[in-house]
Amino acid sequence: MEVQAGTAAPDFSLGAHNSDQKVSLSSFKGRPVVVAFMPFAFTGG
Amino acid sequence: MNCEILQLSADPVPSLKGWADFLGGVPFPLLSDFWPHGAVGKAYGIFNDERGMDKRAAYVIDAKGIVRYAKVYPQGTIPTSEELLAELKKL
Question: Which of B1, B59, B70, B85 is the most exposed place for a label (fewest CB within 10 A)?
Fold first, then answer.
């Protein structure tokens, strides 16, 4: 089921291109976050 | 604007590094939803099982971790930053 506005954002902790540490959504609490998903890299943005 | 941007895809980290280099650097984290494959995309309900990749989607999440704006884009559409900025300004 798709996440809808008004619900808690599912947390995640993932490897990043620019860090050896995993980046988790919950570490940014206190600031707004834009989370964007894309299909594969090199496929038009 | 005081917000964080996180870009996710089902690519492994080395692909994301290569892509960032190709683009001349990316100022926000590109995150790898590669393994378990697409697990975060599945948690958000936007994983494309048929093609094995995340769909294009954008979320504005407020300081408390609540989704304030959610949009899934048809294949081939690129989100514009204006609509996301407009949502951020409402917070």
Answer: B1
